[in-house]
Design goal:
Shape: globular
Order of helices and strands: HEHEEHEEEHEEEHHE
Radius of gyration: 22 Å
Oligomer: single chain
Structural class: alpha+beta
Distance between the termini: 58 Å
Number of helices: 6
Largest sheet: 10 strands, mixed
Helix content: 25-40%
Number of strands: 10
Length: about 325
């Protein structure tokens, strides 16, 4: 009898679960204190496959939109969320940084726990920390690191991998691939590799890290860290370097494109967005938690970082 009754109420529980989750998230968690306002830095991870990018768009599902809706459910207010940069549709993040100012009763730990209780499964707040009210995730950044994954082996077509890589499924010339990455490192005009530029800022970017590394048994991954990125810059770079490594075009053409001597030359088509990840965003202030230096290697507080990280410019769409 009891088992039969339990089976009858299961559908009702499934229907009520979203409301129950919301109600629980609104309860006064331990750690909520009185006060005016707090500035909270959020480190976010998300699967971009079902999003129309980061930025709020009318009638479209976006990461920023989901965050602002979750915050409204928790605080009763529509609070603007600022991101370190906009990722395009289909692009993922393992280290996007955002900031929001919330009522003072919300501690960083409590806000993180509450957000993760109401956010959809493809967005997760990895870390939260209280920062100075002047902290700006976009203008305060000195570098960003992206990773692009290319699947070379047949296993890359597995449903556990293909949403998060470019399943090329063919071997590439590793020597040419490494040489291509070496050409990208340093200061260059990346106008040829941008779908849209920033004429008022120019097209020059300083790339501190540019290298291809193994991606387990699946393929290779391209790691790039720079002070700024142009629209679709990483994807155009990857598409062109892959063509060089497939011996479809000579390395000299990549060199000419980077030297802004590309009269009559065009980049290869951009690599698909679902292989691209925003991995880390770096900040110069050591008081900002979880700083990621420009070489892409996390260090503990007090350790040295690259002194040449320099000036940064906002990247509207690196992907």
């Amino acid at each position: 009898m009891a088992e039969s009754r339990f089976r009858q109420i299961l559908p009702d529980l499934a229907t009520l679960w979203p409301s129950l989750t919301f109600a629980l998230s609104a309860l006064p968690f331990p750690g909520v204190t009185a006060g005016d306002q707090r500035r909270i830095k959020l480190t976010l991870q998300y699967d971009g496959g079902d999003f129309h990018g980061w930025q709020v768009q009318p009638g479209a599902r976006t990461v920023q939109g989901e965050l602002e809706e979750a915050l409204e459910r928790l605080t009763g207010m529509r609070l603007p969320v600022l991101g370190s940069g906009r990722t395009d549709r289909g692009v993922h993040a393992a280290g996007q940084v955002a900031a929001v100012t919330v009522p003072g009763r919300w501690s960083a730990a409590t806000l993180r726990r509450a957000l993760n209780a109401v956010l959809p499964g493809d967005v997760w707040v990895a870390e939260a920390a209280e920062v100075d009210e002047a902290f700006h995730p976009r203008y305060g950044a000195v570098a960003r690191t992206y990773e692009y994954r290319v699947g070379v082996s047949e296993e890359a077509m597995s449903p556990f991998h293909r949403r998060w890589c470019w399943p090329l499924l063919r071997p590439m010339n590793s020597t040419l691939l490494a040489a291509s990455a070496l050409e990208v490192k340093g200061g260059h005009s990346f106008q040829a590799f941008a779908k849209a530029g920033q004429p008022e800022r120019g097209h020059r970017c300083l790339v501190q890290v540019s290298e291809w590394r193994p991606w387990g048994k699946l393929g290779v991954r391209f790691i790039i860290t720079a002070d700024r990125f142009l629209h679709h810059m990483v994807r155009y770079l990857v598409g062109t370097m892959v063509d060089v490594a497939l011996e479809r075009r000579p390395l000299a053409e990549l060199r000419a494109l980077l030297a802004d001597e590309s009269v009559g030359l065009e980049t290869s088509p951009p690599a698909p967005p679902h292989g691209l990840f925003l991995m880390n965003v770096s900040y110069p202030d050591p008081s900002v938690p979880n700083e990621m230096p420009v070489d892409g290697v996390k260090r503990h507080s007090g350790e040295s970082r690259n002194p040449d990280s320099g000036y940064t410019e906002y990247s509207p769409h690196a992907g």
